Amino acid sequence: MMQFPRYIFAGLALAIAAIPALAFDGKTITDATGREVQVPANPAKVFAAGPPAATLLYTLKPEAMVGWVRPVKPADRPYLLPETHDLPELGRLTGRGDTVNLEVLLSTGPDLIVDYGTINATYIDLAGRIQEQAGVPYVLIDGSFAAMPQSIRQMADVLNVPERGEALASYAEKTLADLDMLLADIPKDARPKVYLARGPEGIETAGPSSINAEVITRVGAVNVVTSDSDGLANVSPEQVQAWAPDVIVTIDRDFAANVGAMPEWQGIPAVANGRVYLAPSTPFGFIDAPPSVNRLTGVIWLTHTLYPDAASGDMRTEIADFYELFYGLRPDDAALTALLGD
Amino acid sequence: MERMTPLLSASDLAIGHGGKALFQGIDLRLEPGRVLCLLGPNGAGKTTLFRTLLGLIPPISGRIMLGDDPLSRLSRVQIATRLAHVPQSLTTPFAFTALDIVLMGAAALLGPFSRPGPVEHQQAMIALSRLGIADLAQTEITRLSGGQRQLVLIARALAQEAGVLIMDEPTASLDFANRVQVANAIRQLAVAGTAIILSSHDPDQAAALADDALLLNRSGVIASGSAQEILTAENLSRLYGIPVRRERSTDGRLHFS
Amino acid sequence: MTERRLSWLLALALIATLMIGAMIGPYALTPSQIVAVLGGDRSDPQAVTVLWNIRLPRVLAAAVVGAALAAAGAAYQTVFRNPLVSPDILGVSAGAGFGAVLGILLGLPVMAIQILGFVTGLTTVAIVLGLTLALRGTGQVLVMVLCGIAIGALAGAGISLVKLLADPDQQLPAITFWLMGSLAGIKRPDIGAALPALLIGLAPLIALRWRIGLLAMGDDEARAMGIDATRLRLLVIACATLMTAAAVSMAGVIGWIGLMVPHMARLLTGPRFDRLLPASILIGAGFMVLVDTSARSIATIEVPLGILTAVLGAPIFVFLLARGAKSWSE
User: Fold this and answer.
1) Chain B and chain A touch, per 3+ beta carbon pairs within 8 A
2) Angle at A105 between CA A99 and CA A108, to 5 degrees
3) How far is the alpha carbon of C253 from chain A, nearest alpha carbon, in Å?
4) What family, per the record (chain B) (predicted)?
5) What top-level class would CATH report for the domain B8-256?
């Protein structure tokens, strides 16, 4: 019953949205799907359809967020702007299963919905349907790693924060250009074979073309997984033995802590040489989770981790710079240590 | 006349389901080599009476004795060594061989962890031979005729080595040839000393097979006693609720129509 | 073929599949290396790790899981007098699945996930039996099966709820993989943890195997032959459930084995449970070893066992139906 007034409001919003924008004060943009979408000149309440979009929205225009897809975890709070900590959890609109109720979404009064991710027929269709049903413009932006600077600019444009977008996009461009310069001096045979371990057993992984492991290939490493499946897969420890990776990157804290004692992982070069690295994950993951602009931290971290001799500069400073620029807060030394380890 | 202890007896028995009596005042006794026929229309409760006698459901009141022991004090194994049941038909979805089925009769004679061995195989083959179907031992029951299956079930009851056989409508679903075959088997068993209690809805069969008869319909026990004495036109008319005539054919058999 | 000769033949076939399983794997080992390592040669530590810590535990686990599911299936089919029954009939897989995915959601250690799945699998069946008892008494097989369907559906709803609540980036994939069944993560301690439950479940089934077969005749007949049918069936259900829960909590949900293997065995032995049980165990173990060997050799990534058993199982099952249908029904 507590929610009753919200539904009335949702109904009102629906009714208002159903009225054609008589006094339309905005602009028409063409999004990644080729759809022409009329968006407000300066969107003030924006709903992010999934975690990647929420992260991008946060970095560009946190004051316009109406909520998070998932609630902010206590460990994430020191790295995020305080005013965003207690935004409501609204659920996701795309991806594996919708969890958002359209009426709840409308009750937050959004004037724009943004999504940042895979572009395919399903998502294009979904964007059109939601826009029609909810009467809120729905913009879809290409989430692939290669398109990142351009997508940041496009999203910034839509959100009416072009300067901010330019700052972030040029940072991304510079980071990737630095990476390419570094890689140019590293011969193919000096590039490590990397296995991405997920889950407490470490047997869940992702192939080179998967969005979950894209950053590993981008930093010039060889993903040992030869499958070209786009999603996640299970493999056996014996297969990892056969692949004999030089480095294991994991996003699972338990696996990172236990792998040294797991008999079936012994003898793998990465384990034998102590080259199992736990990717930081607060407030956003370095490798994926979500696959958004936060993956630039993965580029910095992996560059220093995989090529300690070739990488110039100080990783802690670079990461702190990124956090300050993108997330709005510069972590102090203690926070950096908590994030990256010693 | 000296009366021996009956193998099976019931006195002032009331039977039914869930505490509700279907009948009361049933008295019966069965001695070695005797055949008792329960005669009555379908649905009269003959199967309920059998399940009560087998101890599968408790009586509402009254008492059932197996020899000198009250049925209620006996374990399932003890009951099975004295009382064997021949169900109306063989209902299993699996294609057992005839021999497999007959071997099951040895369950009460074997320890809980034992399997039938050479002795039980021999006993099972003897039981099959007594019924003239030893050649069917390895045949799957799904390939047998209705009469053959009935004989297999009787053989299983014999392998149980119980003194009393309880047969529920042994010929109800059989054709003429099979009926004759099963009836002959029943008579041979009685001659060899087995006590048999069977149910039927056919008065001709009761007259042909039974020494004693118990007439039962939905209103209760109509008559009980020697088959020749109580299978009268009057009793049968009351039993079935229609006029029945009794004739004796030249060979001495009773026929009812 | 005599019973004894068939058992020997199946045992030899199982040994052959175990050897095949030990020979094949993504890590290249020559037969002579394998023989050397098995003989105690520790000069190549990598080969020792692969064989002793990864491949052999997995082959053994596959054999154990296959044997358990097949034995439980044969037992369930016999006591429910229905050749189309599988060990999931009373909700044990759904229940164990619910516990395990809940464990994944809560981020428990792997062994705790396994134990939670085992416990909820048993609890589900206990609830079904309790409900049956409360409703009509355990003699009512149909009531029992319907309660199993209802409680199983609840557990299924619980699984769906957990999937909804799970973190879609990390937990949801793990849940999905678990529900499809896999032995990729198996370790020696996992087998050790599951073995007691499997043996405790199996021992009474083997000891009472001939009597259990009499339950196929129906309750009244079995009781008239001197069997306490209600108690014996409860015991068999408890044992088969224990084995299934142990297998499922170790390997995830693997369908078809418990339904199909008893049929294959029945073609060789006939329906007598005392012969069916050993044959089902041997065939189930060998079949599962072959399936799992395929699961880890078809591609570099693991093919979930549930998918393989269904792909292999459905055609084999239809074939068996076509061959055997006449021998089960009138």
Assistant:
1) no
2) 140
3) 15
4) Belongs to the ABC transporter superfamily.
5) alpha beta
